[in-house]
Amino acid sequence: MLEAIKTFYGLKRRPHQGDIHQFAWNSQVYAMSNENLRGYIADNPDMRGARVLSVCAAGDHAFESLLAGATRVDTFDINYMQKYVMELKMQMIRHVPYDHFMDFFFASKKFDRQIIRPIWSKLSLGARVFWRELCRDPSICMWAHYNNYDKSKCLSYVGDAGAYNRLRDIMPDKINFVQSDVLNLAGQIDGKYDVVFLSNIMNYILPQAAYITQLMDFYERVLTPLADHHLNDGALVYFNYIWGSNTNIRWREQFRDLMVDRDMIDSYNLSSHHEFLSQEFKSGIRNDLELKRDTVAMMRHRARPGR
Ligand SMILES: C[S@@+](CC[C@H](N)C(=O)[O-])C[C@H]1O[C@@H](n2cnc3c(N)ncnc32)[C@H](O)[C@@H]1O
Q1: Closest residue by CA, ligand 1 atom 23
Q2: How far apart are CA 17 and CA 193, in angstroms?
Q3: Ligand 1 atom closest to 57 (CA)
Q4: N or C, fewer C-beta in 10 Å, the chain?
Q5: What is the pTM of this model?
Q6: Which tens digit of pLDDT belongs to each residue from 218-255?
Q7: In this structure, which residue's CA is closest to atom 8 in ligand 1?
Q8: ∠ CA(140), CA(144), CA(150), 5° rounding?
Q9: What's the pLDDT tens digit per position in 42-86?
Q10: In sequence order, what DSSP letters do the residues of 68-124 get, joined into one string?
Q11: Burial of 287 (0-12, 13-18, 19+ CB in 10 A)
């Protein structure tokens, strides 16, 4: 009951999303990822049998991970409401046919409550409060019309009814959710992980700073505490995502090797226990810009003896 009251209050008092997004516990939600998750998660051998820690967002990093062979996924998000997006999608994938799911999220009249009537009684009280409001007021969802990426190419279960049905078969009963700022994450979770997905949160911690300052700050305040307590040897942390890294002049000028400036990493001795990598892949997700490429930055962790 308390959760339902908190949710109702949070929705009524939600902050305005400005130009530079400030994320809070009750911000507008993402209903679909805007990354090409298929591009770096599907077919990734590191995912097989992996224990994964991921930002929750729309639940899509978790779903793509399960499809790629992860055995367990735990999630976190600063925005408390994101857990309701993931909860609804989990119930829909389990009980609602693919075509109805697609209509709910992608038809010109989105969020038609009739479509989710069959699973209404399966939702938590908080989720019912949340979805009743969102169906009435789609502006609770950030970018109600999403962007112009072709989701069917970015998310396996959206692009392919077969993957949607496979996800239904492997969907766990529960995916853990912790409400936490990434800055406090290491102290809020237990256990060790093989793969961590941090999306592009890094860019919002010091939004006005140069990329290198952002990376140094994030390395000290987020990546190091995670590595010290929650990474298995050889774990991969996907710590940033850049859209159109080959066409976006700002990124090309700011650093040489797309996501990772090797000189900076050497001069700050960041690589003593972590190997920094970047993976560029064809986004292929905007029909008009097939040559656009996205990049993810990654860090591979090597445990120090005795830690
Ligand atoms: C940075 S946003 C960008 C959207 C993302 N590219 C996707 O595919 O969903 C992703 C998620 O990060 C969460 N987030 C933003 N800042 C955060 C922070 N400091 N700590 C934890 N989560 C945060 C947001 O609430 C949102 O759900």
Answers
A1: 78
A2: 32
A3: 27
A4: N
A5: 0.94
A6: 999 999 999 999 999 999 999 999 887 777 666 665 55
A7: 33
A8: 145
A9: 999 999 999 999 999 999 999 999 999 999 999 999 999 999 999
A10: TT-SEEEEEES-TTHHHHHHHHHHHHHHS-HHHHHHHHHSSS---HHHHGGGGGGS-
A11: exposed
The residue count for the chain: 307
Six token digits for residue 285? 């997700």
Nearest to 276 by CA among 289, 259, 292, 291: 259
CA 109, chain centre distance (Å) = 25
Please answer whether residues 56 and 88 qualify as being in contact, where contact means their C-beta atoms are separated by less than 8 angstroms. Answer: no
**Terminal C-alpha separation, the chain:** 43
User: Own/partner pairs for 280-286, CB < 8 Å, 24+ apart?
Assistant: 280/245, 280/246, 281/36, 281/39, 281/40, 282/39, 283/36, 283/39, 283/149, 283/243, 283/244, 284/36, 284/39, 284/153, 285/36, 285/149, 285/150, 285/153, 285/154, 286/148, 286/149, 286/150
